[in-house]
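Hi support team,

I've been running sequence recovery on a batch of backbones for a student project. Most finish fine, but this one hangs at about 90% for roughly twenty minutes before it completes. I'm not sure whether the input is malformed or the queue is just slow. I've pasted the structure tokens below so you can try to reproduce it. Let me know if you need the job ID as well.

Thanks,
M.K.
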């Protein structure tokens, strides 16, 4: 035996009027609750949108940090290569100076030794 009554919902006041309030007040309360629910839903939608934007920003930062790490590794390799090149250049210069000093000493010492013999 089906009835025409809507299913029971504890959050919607029943047709009984125990407190002496009218249907107009009940409808006003229902409308106020619906308004609060709509406000809450709107705020939740904003929060979800902000979370999605935040996730996009985090993903973007992740990609940027990976690119930065790769470029830092390339810079480190380049810096090591330049450091080694400069070390060899410095060593070549030192060797040239030492050889020049040795040749200069030989030019000075050999004639002195030859004259003294």
């Amino acid at each position: 035996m089906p009835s025409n009554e809507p299913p029971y919902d504890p959050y919607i006041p029943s047709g009984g009027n125990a407190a002496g309030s009218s249907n107009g007040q009940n409808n006003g309360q229902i409308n106020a609750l619906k308004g609060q629910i709509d406000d809450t839903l709107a705020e939740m939608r904003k929060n979800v949108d902000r979370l999605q934007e935040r996730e996009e920003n985090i993903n973007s930062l992740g990609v940027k940090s990976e690119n930065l790490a790769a470029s830092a590794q390339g810079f480190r390799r380049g810096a090591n290569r330049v450091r080694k090149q400069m070390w060899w250049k410095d060593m070549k210069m030192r060797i040239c100076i030492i050889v020049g000093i040795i040749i200069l000493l030989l030019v000075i010492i050999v004639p002195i030794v030859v004259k003294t013999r």
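--
Follow-up from support: It reproduced on our side and the slowdown came from queue contention, not your input. Residues 35 and 58 are 34 Å apart (CA to CA). No action needed from you.
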